[in-house]
Amino acid sequence: MTDLGAVVVQLKQERDKLDRAIAVLSGLSGNSTGGGGRRKMSAAARERIAAAQRKRWAKFKAKKTR
Asked: Rounded to an integer, what distance in angstroms lies between the CA atom of residue 9 and that of residue 6?
């Protein structure tokens, strides 16, 4: 039978390695979520979206009057 003390030491070392790996991976995933603030949209993009919406409403209202 092997020395249980040596097995315990080896398992603790492996646990420490896994804890460090988990900490690194947790740090990486925390940065990729984006987190704060609203996304900024240019004035041109807002105008394109508004124009498309106006076009959709005009199409909808045209069908409604028929």
From this structure: 5
